[in-house]
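Incident review: delayed structure delivery

Summary: a single-chain prediction request sat in the queue longer than the usual turnaround. Root cause was a stuck worker, restarted by the on-call engineer. No data loss occurred. The affected request and its eventual output are reproduced below so the record is complete for anyone auditing the incident later.

Affected input:
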Amino acid sequence: MPYFGKYETPDALLRDDTVSREEKITMLEQWRDDKKSYMRATDEGMEGEDRAEMLKQIKRALAELQ
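Output delivered after worker restart:
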């Protein structure tokens, strides 16, 4: 998970000029897939951060790059 611990939000990743467009897409797709898996795994009544909002941010960032 190259994004983990380095970027708090998808927008932070988008603003990183040291990462190529293709690398950003790859990281955002992995972030999206990881978030979806996590949401499925914790869907059984667990409280916590608004995971759906983060997923929306990731999808918005991907759309901006594509």
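Verification: The radius of gyration is 12 Å.
Action items: add queue-age alerting; document worker restart procedure.
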